[in-house]
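Quick one: structure tokens for this chain, please?
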Amino acid sequence: MNSLALAMRNLLRNRRRSITTLLAMGIGLVSVLLFGGYIKDINYGLQTSYVQRSGHLQIQHRDYFLYGSGNPSAYGIAGYERIIATLRADPVLAPMLRVATPTLQLGGLAGNFAAGVSRTVFATGMVVADQNTMRQWNDYHFTRHPESLALTGTQPDSAVIGTGVARVLELCGPLSVPRCEHTASTVVDTGTALPADVAALVGEATPAASSQAATRIEILAASAHGAPNVAGVNVVKAEYQGVKELDDVYVALHLAQAQHLVYGQGPPQATAIVLQLEHSDEIPRARARLQQLLDTTFKDEPLEIQDYMTLNPFYGQTLAMFAAIFGFIALLIGAIVLFTVSNTMSMAVVERTSEIGTLRAMGLRRGGIRGLFLWEGLVLGVVGALAGALAALVIAAILNHAGLTWTPPGRVEPVPLNIRVWGEGGFILINGIGLVIVAAVSALWPAGRAARLNIVDALRHV
């Protein structure tokens, strides 16, 4: 206690220098916490986006993730309804499970035969009501709330396509797609019938009704038996998907329509059973229970479990990139704080050389001298950490309520700028302790130099 009291008194002897040092340390910690809070919000936002679309976990046919995207008929899950019913009734999984829904992904060819154009697409069949429920998952309490899917309340033969698909298929006018000036003059011949062979596959003898003909397209896909199958769908909306590569191939269908394309009149299957949990921290326990069920109840089914990070490798790459950036910035700020505190302690040693000699002459050992300066470094670190954490909380609250927005990669609409410092107690504690350690380490060399001073030379120092 005596050492702590002496350390505080010595720091107050030169208030200007001590305050300057504390400002440098506080600003350093504020910068780290604000940038870290910004990164956390991005990470939580990305996780929320992926979980809303693809769930926390997916049950798939074994090897579908590596080989099945181009051949859904060979990697479909037969009897998926029984599996979903079992999962929903399981006493361990049921409290954790929020949504369990089937999806079917397939590749094909979309054509607007009235305009004589077509392109390859990647379609997803879904249960719209389940997907709308998934889109409301908000474990991190974001203020924005996604709208319901455009397929909500539509007919079974409806579809939503990416704006890139709409441009190629020359549907810009009927679907009000922007940036299509070069196709604005294209006239869609709504009275042109489908080619005879395509019409036979679709089961249409006459053109589509005039009210839907302008947005009517045909999707050609390989069926489970290898023969081509065609379905005519009415495009209700073109939506930009945030990433051009996806926007140029995206088609969303009702699950029954997608199953009809792939399996025809045969038993319907799904390529994945999407599971969304109440909370992300329940993933390990839910996955362990799912594996038990796959090893026992469904041991005859060639199934495996994939989590959202495996299904979306971009998420893990983004986390790694931000972690590297954060580590580099924290290292730079730590180096600045280290030299600032070390310089402050070195100046204190020079100014108090005579006092150090007097203390040594009175019998204080070298360890006592070293301890005095280490305590000063620790006090600076603790006060700087407290001041920096408090300032970061205040600044973050101001920025969060300032109404600032930005558009993250892969999104089409701006989102509120949010810095997550409040509520991240562990993050604040770790960085605060890091600052205290840096301050203590910074005082080591000046403290050692003070302890090594010769008593006679110190006493006659002017």
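The first strand starts at residue 57 and ends at 61.
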